[in-house]
Amino acid sequence: MKYEFKDGLEFAKELDKLDKLHNTRDRFYLNEGEIYMDGNSLGLSSKDAEESLLNIFNVWRTEGIKIWGVEDGRYFNFSKNLAEKLKNLINADANEIIVMGSTTSNIHQGLATFYKPTKERYKIIVDELNFPTDIYAVKSMLNLKGYKIEDALIEIKSRDGRTICEEDIMSKMADDVVLILLPSVLYRSAQLLDMELITSEAHKHGIVVGWDLCHSIGSVPHDFKKIDPDFAVWCSYKYLNAGPGATAGMYINRKHFNKSTGLRGWFGSKDESQFLMSHDFDQDKDANGWLLGTHNMFSMAPLDGVLNIFNEVGMESIRTKSLHITAYLMYLIDNKLSKYGYSIGNPREDHRRGGHVCLEHDEAYRISLALRDNNVIPDYREPNVIRLAPIALYTSYEEVYNLVEILERIVKDKEFENYSLKRVTVL
């Protein structure tokens, strides 16, 4: 889509007046004078999340063990209740969704279930730009199955160091490949892969497809009825704003409900047999059969609250603003910052990018440190990327404009030279 923007603070303020989501800012805790651009890594706290967390604490405080039976078993079936709220974000049925564990543990669950190697078909396709935890999980599964990484892992190479070409992925789909695990959005470059195309082509070759939605869910609407993946995983603390380390999620396509889950736990049992305490696993008939242990209630409660906002606003509205405000940021970078050595490392086209902008500069690390001392919270990724995420639910256009003004001053006045090149642990 072609966007029409202008320079100047007044234009930014006018965009805020026209923004249909501007008032959702009031439902989040924003620090006065701070520009928060790191929602792609850890989303901000909402008042809805806070209320939900405090409520469940009060239920536990007053009910004790009876918490599992109050409100018609709402908390015993907490994953099912959250699935009802999550289904619209990926256009799936609620009984195809579970809320549990972490992204990494859920990847292991998916691999344990769907990686069934044979003598002829045993290879897994990944990409070289994926987040490390996905690759660690895949390599550990190959090790557990007795395969050498160099023999069984196909790693799709990037042509430019930023993006992955869909054609390169599809060119490696062969009869010796059993499974593909890819990110929906690449964390460093914000590239949005053509999930439907890749999944469809893989299925023609009989290959199982799993997607990691960590950098897209809550920012990009997905249509799993069309994409038809075999499984997917995601975290809840980025665009979903459910809190640090919040419980993750998993999708199991209903066509696989008859499969035996790879890793078994007692919450994967049918409700009617769970408390019979049999050592014979009686797997639930839908995605709930992939559940493991008792729900992490305090980790799930904030997600319960904040999902009310997502369902009230709708993913299409969120995506519309996300694309518009990131396009505005890119416009300002092009027109105000390019002469200072800044450039954009993410795809420009709406259909090829997620919810954050990848700002590149030779001094990106020290600039990111200077930003924090200017009350701007970005994050940095090696070797030269400052990730900036204007979040549709709580970032204003005025904040984006002020951010660019600060970025300009940091380089123009050489503020970054006051900082060391020595890396710190978290940034």
TrEMBL record:
Keyword flag Isomerase: no
Catalysed reactions, semicolon-separated: 3-hydroxy-L-kynurenine + H2O = 3-hydroxyanthranilate + L-alanine + H(+); L-kynurenine + H2O = anthranilate + L-alanine + H(+)
Residues with PTM N6-(pyridoxal phosphate)lysine: 238
Principal EC category: hydrolase
SUPFAM superfamilies: PLP-dependent transferases
Binding locations of pyridoxal 5'-phosphate: 103-104, 131-134, 212, 215, 237, 266, 294
Pfam families reported for this sequence: KYNU_C
Keywords: Hydrolase, Pyridine nucleotide biosynthesis, Pyridoxal phosphate
Pathway listed: Cofactor biosynthesis; NAD(+) biosynthesis; quinolinate from L-kynurenine: step 2/3; Amino-acid degradation; L-kynurenine degradation; L-alanine and anthranilate from L-kynurenine: step 1/1
Cofactor: pyridoxal 5'-phosphate
InterPro entries: Kynureninase, PyrdxlP-dep_Trfase, PyrdxlP-dep_Trfase_major, PyrdxlP-dep_Trfase_small
GO CC terms: cytoplasm
Domain of life of the native organism: Bacteria
Enzyme Commission no: 3.7.1.3
Keyword hit for Hydrolase: yes
Gene Ontology molecular functions: kynureninase activity; pyridoxal phosphate binding
Function: Catalyzes the cleavage of L-kynurenine (L-Kyn) and L-3-hydroxykynurenine (L-3OHKyn) into anthranilic acid (AA) and 3-hydroxyanthranilic acid (3-OHAA), respectively.
Family classification: Belongs to the kynureninase family.
Subunit composition and interactions: Homodimer.
UniProt-recorded name of the protein: Kynureninase
